[in-house]
Design goal:
Helix 1 runs parallel beside helix 3. About 20% of the residues lie in helices and about 30% in strands.
Length: about 400
């Protein structure tokens, strides 16, 4: 389980240059925001100039904001505005657990990922000399790094999350608006796989050889914010092979597409030309997959999924979709059934019926890793192989 710094009371979208502080209520909790950090944790703040875009990064030195305790988690905290803010500028507020720039990003390649609560960036705040009506923000940003073995400069990418969602509507799959443990855990494992620092078994080696071959066609189910596909796209862009080809098609419901595609576009400069992830709609309840399958003229090499198990009622539709995708892929490449890579965190033991359902269509899952995080339930990484023709 990971812990996340977030805003229980977010900052406003606009603020005046009157010298008045920004009022927020920080929070440190798990991904569902149902379990709170139990230790005392110092939170530091800094400001990052967003617009007009500076010629070089402008980030103020982190300063201590508060010592967070669950017993005072509803306390409102004043944050001093950036000293040098000018009329018409946009600044992001950064909250982190440490005083260095490294503490403001999530190092996905780090084997100890999650030992401290994850930092957070606010959406840009517009500073003006005019008095404006205070409107609370509904988005946040988190920044991530991917480091190549012996690489001097880590690649930094950003993921926007929508914070205005309703847990009661989980069965409607509103969860696509946020980052969840499984997405971070699976992305971290993929980064470590790319760098060669994961436990090396025959199955793990097979996954690495397929995912990071010069050509690989990947389809993601239940993409949400897109972090897994984006991490894969960046990692594949870091390959030394002279020919990088293949598709990364990342899918979810129509309501997820604006945020998903927006996050893909944020990292456009990091992808190999022609190998950027592509967001598209795939509804598991719809039997027609022809639109999505049309991109894979040579079949699908890998199907990727993270945190697709929170609603057991959706399992028949998920299994049906997997079956159709595998049947399609094997119809064009009979000797190359796709691998299935799953990032999973148990929230209810009943979710594990998915494994038995998968076996009935010829998919056998094997656990290859656990990403422990801070404490509690780890993120499990499973790899599925197709042993028989799906029905």
């Amino acid at each position: 389980m990971f812990y996340y710094i977030s805003f229980l009371r977010p900052p406003p979208t606009q603020a005046t240059l009157s010298g008045e502080p920004i009022i927020i209520t920080p929070q440190i909790a798990n991904d569902l925001r149902t379990e709170y950090y139990t230790d005392v944790q110092d939170i530091f703040y800094s400001w990052s100039l967003h617009s007009p875009t500076p010629s070089s990064s402008v980030i103020t030195k982190p300063a201590k904001l508060t010592s967070w305790r669950a017993s005072t988690m509803y306390k409102e905290i004043p944050v001093p505005s950036p000293r040098n803010a000018r009329d018409g500028e946009y600044w992001r507020l950064i909250l982190s657990s440490g005083t260095s720039r490294k503490d403001q990003v999530l190092p996905l390649s780090d084997e100890n990922l999650g030992h401290l609560p994850f930092p957070v960036f606010s959406d840009p705040i517009f500073f003006s000399t005019r008095q404006n009506k205070a409107v609370k923000q509904e988005r946040i940003q988190r920044s991530y790094t991917l480091t190549v073995t012996n690489g001097d400069h880590p690649t930094i990418f950003h993921i926007i999350e929508q914070t205005s969602f309703d847990l009661e509507k989980a069965t409607d799959r509103k969860f696509h608006q946020k980052i969840w443990d499984s997405g971070i855990g699976l992305s971290s494992w993929l980064a470590q796989l790319h760098s060669g620092i994961v436990a090396n078994t025959a199955l793990v080696s097979k996954v690495k050889n397929v995912l990071f071959a010069s050509r690989c066609d990947i389809l993601e189910l239940g993409a949400g914010t897109g972090i897994v596909a984006i991490a894969l796209g960046i990692l594949r862009g870091l390959l030394e092979s002279p020919v990088i080809s293949g598709k990364i098609i990342t899918t979810d419901l129509p309501s997820a597409l604006p945020l998903l595609q927006g996050n893909i576009n944020l990292s456009q400069s990091h992808y190999h030309p022609g190998n950027a992830p592509e967001g598209t709609v795939l509804d598991w309840d719809e039997p027609d997959i022809s639109t999505q399958a049309a991109s894979f003229v040579s079949g699908i090499d890998v199907i990727v999924m993270a945190d697709v198990t929170y609603n057991t009622a959706s399992f028949p539709a998920l299994i049906g979709t997997l079956s159709r995708l595998i049947r399609f892929s094997m119809s064009v490449a009979p000797a190359k059934p796709p691998l299935i890579v799953l990032g999973y965190k148990e929230r209810d033991a009943a979710e594990r019926i998915l494994w038995g359902m998968a076996e009935k269509i010829g998919i056998r899952f094997e656990e290859v890793a656990q990403i422990p995080g801070a404490e509690g339930t780890p993120v499990e990484v499973w790899v599925g192989t197709v042993s028989v023709n799906t029905r």
